[in-house]
């Protein structure tokens, strides 16, 4: 009785983890699909087509063939895209991660800060 409850809880936890990894991969795929193709080489990254194939395969594997090793490999690819490629693409295209669009890194909330010069 207790063993079946533990296994049920564990399988629910694993299902939630797999769902989270799927959402992460879908986010990376959609982000890559919405970017300009010329931004990838400009950011010195692989091509847009390369990332769409890798991330598309990741989503397909997670949906249809959820083998742990393949899911982990795809998750690593999605994480690499999110932490390496995505910021480089945003720097090229001007898409900031904050509330402000444009401006300089020395801009404060009330305008540019020039160190009292």
Biggest sheet strand order reads 1-2
The major β-sheet equals: 2 strands, antiparallel
Proportion of residues in helical segments: 55-70%
Q: Helix count, per DSSP?
A: 4
**Per DSSP, what share of the residues sits in E-state strands of 2 or more residues?**
under 5%
Low-confidence stretches: 97-101
- Tell me the total number of β-strands: 2
Radius of gyration over alpha carbons? 20 Å
Q: H/E element string?
A: HHHHEE
Q: Could you give the distance between the termini?
A: 74 Å
- Overall mean confidence score, pLDDT: 86
**What is the overall silhouette?**
flat
Structural class: mainly alpha
Give a written overview of the molecule.
With 117 residues, this protein is mainly alpha-helical. It has helices spanning 2-34, 39-42, 48-64, 68-93, and strands spanning 107-108, 111-112. Strand 1 (107-108) and strand 2 form a beta hairpin. The protein is flat. The model is unreliable at 97-101 (pLDDT under 50).
Please sum up the structure shown.
InterPro entries: DUF2516. With 117 residues, the protein is mostly helical.
